[in-house]
Structures are given as structure tokens and as C-alpha cells.
Amino acid sequence: MQRRTWLKLGLVSAAGLALVGGGLALRAPAWTPEGLSASGRAVFGAVASTVLDGSLPEDAAARQVAVDAWFKRLDDSIAALPPHTQAELAQLLSVLASAPGRWAVAGLGTDWPHASVAQVRAALQEMRHSRLALRQQAYLALRELTCAAYFADPGTWMALGYSGPLDI
To answer: Is there a contact between 96 and 124 (Cβ–Cβ < 8 Å)?
Structure first.
């Protein structure tokens, strides 16, 4: 293929994903001002179980409490984003929640809630190292929001070796 053909293919693919994402976001939004929908929670839940692997409590009950608190902080973090960024994130989550979108963007054949940590890790790494900037941006958005919401809680700072702000 020639370079011009690749550029056209990339442009058409990006436009198609934006169109599909917009349609899916209108039909079944993954984010509303009330918070993440079930599909958005499924995507972020799988990403969190992978990205935060080793940081979450081992005990099942304590883990569930930590995840529930993390989802609340995640909703708050997304609500603090500018409206256009919220809309783009809603489109991304709607695309990733659909089977064709999950396969095209993340390269993941298994539904998010049923995917193993290894499968999600491989999908995230594929997105991270992709030649397509769209996939890299999707990876960064998922990872950065996951980490920001988790480490916003002072109770998680010790996992980083951060004792908190200095008293002045």
C-alpha cells in the first residue's frame, strides 16, 4: 500500500468509529451526569482489575468496598471534566462496550466482565503500542482515569510510598 492509501484508510476508520461511537452513545450512553452506566462500569471494572492488580485489597469484602469507593471517585472525576471531554469519553466507553468496538479498538474478543486479567492486560498493551493514535489515546484515557480515581484517596498513597503532603 502507498502512504496516501494508508492515510485515507486511517481517516475513514476514524470517521467511522466516531460515527459508530456517537450512535452508540446516543442509543445507550455509557456515561450520563448521574454517573457510569452498567456498560461503562463493566469496561472500567475490567480495566481497574488489571491496572490496579496488586494494589487492591486481597480480602474479597475489603476489595469490594475499595472498588465501590473507587467507582464513586471515578464518577466524581469524570463529572469534573469539561463537557466535550465527557462526551468523548462517553463515546469511547460506548464503543468499547459493544462487541465490534471492543474488538476493533481493544482487540479483545471476550466481554469485559468475563475477560481475565491476562486478556485485559494484553488488550491494553496492544492499545498502548498501537500505531494508531486513536487506540493509544483510548488506552491513556482508561489508564489515567483509573489511576487518578484510585490514588485520589489518601488511604491508597502508602502503596506508592507517599506519606502525604508536608505540614507547613
So the answer is: no
Residue 158 domain-assigned (yes or no)? no
CA distance 114 to 30: 18
The C-alpha cell of 111 is what? 466481554
Give me 138's grid cell: 483510548
Q: How many domains does the chain have?
A: 1
CA proximity to 123, closest of 57, 43, 56: 43
- Which domain range does residue 139 map to? 3-152
In a domain, 36, yes or no: yes
Closest CA to 57 of 159, 149, 143, 163: 159
**Residue 165 counted as domain residue:** no
62 belongs to a structural domain:
yes
Q: pLDDT tens digit string along 69-109?
A: 999 999 999 999 999 999 899 989 999 998 888 998 999 99
The CB-side HSE value for 15 (13 A sphere, CA atoms) comes to 6
pTM of the model: 0.79
For residue range 11-70, list pLDDT tens digits in order.
776 666 655 555 554 555 676 778 889 899 999 999 999 999 988 888 999 999 999 999
Helix residue ranges per DSSP H, 60-165: 60-79, 83-97, 99-101, 117-128, 133-151
